[in-house]
User: Fold this.
Amino acid sequence: MRPLLFLVLLVILQVSLLHVNAIPQITAITKLTSDLKITIQGQYFTQKPNQKPLLYWHADFGILPSIEFGRKSNWDSTFGGDLVNSTTPNVVISKGSRSAIRLDHGTKESAILSLVEFNSSQLYVWRRRYDAFSLEKDRAIRTRYINAKALNGYNSTVVTTGMWMTTLDKSIWAQVNYAPAGAAFYSATVGNINNDATVTVQRIQTGTPILFYGENDVQFSTPLINATANEGTGVYFSFNHKVFRLWVEYGVEPINVYMSLDKYGMVEVEHSVDGPFLRSTWMNKIQPAERRWVNEEFQYQSNSVNEIDGKLHFWQDNLRAWNESKRFRFRTTSRPNPFKQVYQTQVSNGAQINSFEYFDSLYIDETWHRVLIGNSSVYSNCTKLELIVPNKWNETTIEGTLRLGEFTDTPLNQLFVYVLDANGVVNRNGFNLAVSNQPTSSGLVVVGTLSNTKRVNSIVSHANQLVSSFAFLIIMFFLIDLQLAVAAVSCWFF
Ligand SMILES: *[C@@H]1O[C@H](CO)[C@@H](O)[C@H](O)[C@H]1NC(C)=O
Ligand SMILES: *[C@@H]1O[C@H](CO)[C@@H](O)[C@H](O)[C@H]1NC(C)=O
Ligand SMILES: *[C@@H]1O[C@H](CO)[C@@H](O)[C@H](O)[C@H]1NC(C)=O
Ligand SMILES: *[C@@H]1O[C@H](CO)[C@@H](O)[C@H](O)[C@H]1NC(C)=O
Ligand SMILES: *[C@@H]1O[C@H](CO)[C@@H](O)[C@H](O)[C@H]1NC(C)=O
Ligand SMILES: *[C@@H]1O[C@H](CO)[C@@H](O)[C@H](O)[C@H]1NC(C)=O
Ligand SMILES: *[C@@H]1O[C@H](CO)[C@@H](O)[C@H](O)[C@H]1NC(C)=O
Ligand SMILES: *[C@@H]1O[C@H](CO)[C@@H](O)[C@H](O)[C@H]1NC(C)=O
Assistant:
């Protein structure tokens, strides 16, 4: 009886031990076809409740999320951005793609793409984007005004695009880019309002009289409108570029976390007592995506109400922004609801005209499972990661589709596959995507084999398990002895 019990307990412990230590292990890529469908075999991939991601969108499919690759067939709010391709002048298109979405933050305050709703306590987001602007040079320059009066027989008090603005002594001058009611936004490249001296001295403050002239009146001879500047801070300079945002319910429940990457960058949980998590204190001060395509990843987990145990992690091209041990307090007793909506980039208060943001693709899932391709055989050395979009996923088999993107011209034998499990744990050494063969139009089957390094790793990990088993054996003996002692004592009493 006792040896049997011992054996059963040992097996249970062994199994749980294996699960504690298990990291995803790829043993074979059994199929890689010309349409880039791939089958990955191995173990410890962990169960994924939904086989496909919550949402997959790529500009090559148009503006709607792909129902083939993801589960959502539509966005959850108004879509921001225009579909462009290489026939549109001055566009940038990501490598391996034909189209992109772009939005001019200088003319629209809306977010690019759309909010996406989710119900889970975890989230993983992968996206590819490009900023065709400089957060410094392309900032919005604004004065608000009141008391506008028409002068010299002009028939309106409405400031319009192209008009000139000066102070009474004409020492500060600017040209109006656009003018929503009661405000004028100015060009950063015409006039002197963007000069450092102006920025420092802030000479157009609340109460300063200002004058507006017609577009052709380049001598500033006949003002058409006069007004009083009413901008509390003086000339207002701003490029309020939020690069990521989680909400509970936009516009209703103002609990959100947002992130920015400018020189004042931060992660800020609004309405929190914890204060901003400033970019200046991050492990890696991730740079804005200025005139470069970046792949960015976010991994989120809600917190226990009031506890600082929530997770948010951010990587740009596999560069981790802050320490794994960083935790956040997103929800509190007074605001206990977890986030339900995720937004991509958005700008408030304008920017210079032609400040285009581009998006190539977006992948969102409710768990942290994912499959990535990297350009190094060691995960942490990869400086670029691209996605494999899964459509089947169990402990031992993943089927999906490669998005080569950045790696479009990279030989497959320089690329390595990584599986991240439910906990975001990855196989440290990647599995080579192709040993010698490129996919062919005939739908060639490429068979990968366990490489020597993989064998060494697996031997090491078996050795570890063996050592751990001995430790457990000793503990088991100890526990059983304890049990026997307890039994003996009980017998003695009863
Ligand atoms: C490129 O964009 C133009 C203008 O929107 C459109 O007419 C054309 O069909 C697009 N071409 C491709 C290949 O998508
Ligand atoms: C979230 O839950 C609501 C209510 O059960 C449901 O209508 C909605 O489809 C769910 N959304 C997602 C993204 O699963
Ligand atoms: C003011 O005058 C301009 C040209 O002098 C004319 O185009 C415009 O319609 C007029 N606006 C109003 C509100 O009368
Ligand atoms: C605009 O000009 C008129 C006429 O010169 C003057 O009475 C008024 O005070 C000026 N308003 C502002 C805001 O400077
Ligand atoms: C991450 O945080 C842990 C715990 O605070 C600390 O021991 C470790 O040095 C940090 N690592 C880095 C790279 O900052
Ligand atoms: C990975 O790709 C980046 C960008 O293309 C390149 O700079 C880097 O050298 C590559 N690294 C390896 C190990 O191939
Ligand atoms: C990974 O990076 C480390 C540290 O830079 C380096 O020592 C190692 O050789 C790299 N390994 C591979 C496979 O690129
Ligand atoms: C996983 O899926 C594959 C292919 O559908 C199947 O052959 C295998 O038995 C499944 N494994 C488990 C553990 O469910």
